[in-house]
Design the sequence.
C-alpha cells in the first residue's frame, strides 16, 4: 500500500476547482475526486464520471414494487382469501391499481435512496480525506481536488509540482 | 424582490443557518414556546389514555355519524402536509429556485402533520392493536387478509407510503447539511451525533452526482404521490353513496384544498420564524408573496368546488342531493357552512390586495382564517352528509364532546412541540441549496476565466 492516500489541493471557487480537475484529467490522472460544499455538475464531468446507475436502480425498484403490489392483491383476493364484495369479480383489477401505484412509488423511493447510499459507499465511518485539517471547510466554502496515490501516474514530487501549477491556495498530504 | 438578499457568501450562509442551532444560546422565547406546546401535548396523551381505557364512546360519535372529529382532523392534518411536498418536489421539478429556503421546514411540517393525521384513523379503530390484521396484509394466525377493494385499505397504503417517502426525501436533503453541522459543531456529543447521521458524507463529486440524480427522481415520484394521497383520501368519501360525497369533483377539489391549507400553515410557521431568528434575508418577502399567491389560486379552486357542489345538488334532480344542499344552507349545522363560506370564499379574496400580500402580519392572520376555514370544510363534509342521509328514521345529530376537542388540541401541541425541537436541532433552511443560489456557485465558462 502507498504510504499516503494522496495529495489534496484547495481552491476558493468552483470555477478554479473545475479548471484544475479538467487539467489533471488532461494530464493523465484518473484516480482523483473533487470535494465541494454543493453539487457542481461540471466537476463530475471533469473527472470523467459520467454515468451514475441510480436511475436504473430506481426503475428496477419501482417495477418490482408495482409487480409485487399487484401480485400480492391478486394472490390474497383471488387465490388465498376470495371475498365476494357486492358481486364484483374476484380479479377486479381497477380496485387494485391504487395499491399497485403506491407500492411502485414506495419501492422506487426506497431503492433509490438505499442504492445511492450503497453506490456511494455510505455510511463510511472512516475516510483518509478527513485527516486533512483544512478539509472541514469542504462542507462550508472551500473546494478540494484530491489526486490519489493509487493512480499509476502519481509521483509524490511531480504531482505536488503539478498541483502547485493549478493556482491552488493550499496543498496538503493526505495520510491514511 | 430577491430570493436571497444580496451580501451573502458561502461562509455567511453556512454561519447564519448553522449557528442558529450550534452557537445561539437557548433563549427564553424558545423555552416558553416549547414548554407551552409540550404542555398542550400532554393533553393528547391524557385524551388518548382515556380513549384506550374507555373506548370511542368518550367521543360524540354514534351511528349515523360514525366518523366525527377523527376523520375531520385526519383529513385536515394530512392536507396541511401536502404543501411541504408541493414545495420540495413539484417546485423543484419546475425549477422554482425560491423554494430552496423554505423546503426544509416545509418538509418537516409535512412529516409532523402526517404523523398527527395518522394518529386519528388509528385511534378511531378503538383498539389499534387489534386493527392491524385488516389494515396491513400480513400472515396472521386467523388466516384473514385485508379486502383490497376498500378505499380504507387504499388509504393505509397511500398514507404510509406518503410518510415513508416524505421522510426519505427530507433525510436525503439533510445529509449534506448534517455533514456541515458535523464539521462545525464544537460540542463533542453534537459532532458525534451529526457525524453519525451524516454517515461520512464528504461532498465527493461522484457522490454529488448520484445524490442529485436520486434527489431529482424522488421529486419526480413524490409529485404523483402527493396528488394521489389526497385523491385517495377523497375516495374514502367519493366511493360511497352518501349524498354530497358521491361526486367526481372530490379528488381535484381535495388536492387543491390540501395545498391551500398547507400553504397557510407554511406561512403561519415561516412568518414568526423569520422574525424571531432574523431570517428575513433568506425567507424574503418574495417567499411570502409567492405563498400567498399559491394560496389565493388554490383557494379559488376550492371556492369553485363549493359552487359546483351547490350547482350539482340542484341540477342533478336527485332529491337527496338537493336536500343535502338545502340542509347545508339551513340545517342544524348551517352556521358551520356559512362560516366556511365566509373563510374560504369571501375572506380569501382579501389576498387580491397587494398590501395584504406584502404585510407579514396580515398574511399571518389570513392564514389562520384559512386554516379554520379548511377545518370547517371537513366538518361540513363529514358531519352534514352523515347526519341526514336517505332515511329520516336514521337521522341523528353529532355534538363533539370535550374529549373530541382535547384530542384535536393535543395534536396541535404535538405538532408545535415537534416543530420547536426541529428548529433547535436541525438546520431549518437547506444550507447547501441556498449556496447554489449565490452567483459565485456557478462555474464560469473558460473564456471568462482570467489566467
Sequence:
Amino acid at each position: 500500500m502507498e504510504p499516503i492516500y494522496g495529495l489534496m489541493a484547495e481552491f476558493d471557487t468552483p470555477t478554479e476547482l473545475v479548471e484544475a480537475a479538467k487539467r489533471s484529467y488532461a494530464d493523465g490522472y484518473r484516480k482523483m475526486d473533487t470535494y465541494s460544499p454543493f453539487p457542481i455538475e461540471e466537476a463530475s464531468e471533469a473527472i470523467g464520471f459520467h454515468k451514475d446507475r441510480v436511475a436504473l436502480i430506481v426503475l428496477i425498484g419501482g417495477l418490482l414494487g408495482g409487480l409485487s403490489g399487484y401480485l400480492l392483491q391478486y394472490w390474497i383476493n383471488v387465490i388465498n382469501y376470495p371475498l365476494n364484495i357486492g358481486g364484483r369479480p374476484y380479479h377486479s383489477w381497477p380496485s387494485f391499481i391504487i395499491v399497485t401505484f403506491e407500492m411502485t412509488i414506495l419501492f422506487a423511493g426506497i431503492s433509490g435512496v438505499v442504492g445511492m447510499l450503497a453506490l456511494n459507499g455510505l455510511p463510511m465511518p472512516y475516510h483518509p480525506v478527513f485527516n486533512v485539517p483544512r478539509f472541514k471547510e469542504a462542507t462550508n466554502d472551500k473546494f478540494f481536488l484530491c489526486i490519489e496515490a493509487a493512480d499509476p501516474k502519481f509521483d509524490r514530487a511531480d504531482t505536488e509540482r503539478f498541483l502547485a501549477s493549478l493556482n491552488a491556495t493550499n496543498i496538503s498530504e493526505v495520510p491514511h | 424582490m430577491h430570493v436571497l438578499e444580496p451580501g451573502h457568501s458561502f461562509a455567511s450562509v453556512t454561519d447564519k443557518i448553522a449557528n442558529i442551532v450550534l452557537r445561539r444560546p437557548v433563549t427564553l422565547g424558545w423555552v416558553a414556546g416549547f414548554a407551552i406546546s409540550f404542555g398542550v401535548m400532554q393533553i393528547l396523551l391524557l385524551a388518548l389514555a382515556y380513549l384506550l381505557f374507555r373506548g370511542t364512546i368518550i367521543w360524540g360519535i354514534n351511528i349515523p355519524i360514525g366518523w366525527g372529529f377523527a376523520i375531520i382532523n385526519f383529513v385536515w392534518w394530512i392536507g396541511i402536509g401536502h404543501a411541504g411536498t408541493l414545495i420540495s418536489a413539484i417546485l423543484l421539478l419546475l425549477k422554482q429556485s425560491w423554494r430552496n429556503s423554505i423546503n426544509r421546514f416545509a418538509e418537516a411540517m409535512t412529516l409532523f402533520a402526517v404523523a398527527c393525521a395518522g394518529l386519528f384513523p388509528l385511534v378511531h379503530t378503538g383498539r389499534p392493536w387489534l386493527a392491524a390484521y385488516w389494515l396491513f396484509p400480513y400472515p396472521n394466525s386467523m388466516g384473514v387478509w385485508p379486502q383490497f377493494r376498500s378505499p380504507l385499505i387504499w388509504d393505509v397504503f397511500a398514507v404510509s407510503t406518503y410518510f415513508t417517502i416524505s421522510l426519505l426525501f427530507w433525510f436525503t436533503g439533510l445529509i449534506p447539511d448534517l455533514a456541515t453541522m458535523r464539521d462545525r459543531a464544537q460540542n463533542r456529543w453534537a459532532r458525534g451525533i451529526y457525524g453519525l447521521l451524516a454517515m461520512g458524507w464528504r461532498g465527493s463529486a461522484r457522490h454529488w452526482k448520484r445524490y442529485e440524480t436520486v434527489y431529482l427522481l424522488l421529486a419526480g415520484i413524490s409529485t404523483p404521490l402527493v396528488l394521489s394521497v389526497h385523491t385517495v383520501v377523497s375516495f374514502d368519501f367519493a366511493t360511497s353513496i352518501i349524498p354530497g360525497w358521491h361526486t367526481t369533483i372530490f379528488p381535484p377539489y381535495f388536492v387543491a384544498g390540501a395545498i391551500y391549507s398547507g400553504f397557510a400553515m407554511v406561512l403561519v410557521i415561516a412568518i414568526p420564524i423569520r422574525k424571531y431568528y432574523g431570517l428575513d434575508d433568506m425567507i424574503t418577502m418574495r417567499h411570502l408573496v409567492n405563498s400567498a399567491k399559491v394560496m389565493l389560486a388554490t383557494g379559488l379552486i376550492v371556492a369553485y368546488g363549493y359552487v359546483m357542489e351547490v350547482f350539482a345538488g340542484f341540477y342533478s334532480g336527485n332529491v337527496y342531493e338537493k336536500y343535502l344542499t338545502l340542509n347545508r344552507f339551513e340545517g342544524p349545522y348551517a352556521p358551520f357552512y356559512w362560516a366556511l363560506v365566509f373563510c374560504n370564499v369571501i375572506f380569501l379574496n382579501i389576498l387580491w390586495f397587494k398590501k395584504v400580500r406584502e404585510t407579514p402580519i396580515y398574511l399571518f392572520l389570513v392564514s389562520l382564517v384559512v386554516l379554520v376555514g379548511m377545518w370547517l370544510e371537513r366538518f361540513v363534509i363529514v358531519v352534514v352528509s352523515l347526519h341526514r342521509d336517505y332515511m329520516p328514521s336514521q337521522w341523528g345529530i353529532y355534538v363533539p364532546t370535550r374529549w373530541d376537542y382535547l384530542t384535536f388540541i393535543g395534536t396541535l401541541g404535538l405538532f408545535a412541540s415537534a416543530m420547536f425541537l426541529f428548529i433547535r436541532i436541525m438546520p431549518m433552511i437547506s444550507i447547501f441549496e441556498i449556496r447554489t443560489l449565490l452567483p459565485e456557485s456557478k462555474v464560469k465558462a473558460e473564456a471568462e476565466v482570467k489566467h
User: Anything to note?
Assistant: Chain B touches chain A through 66 residues (CB under 8 Å). The mean pLDDT of chain B is 91. Chain B is about 70% helix and 0% strand.
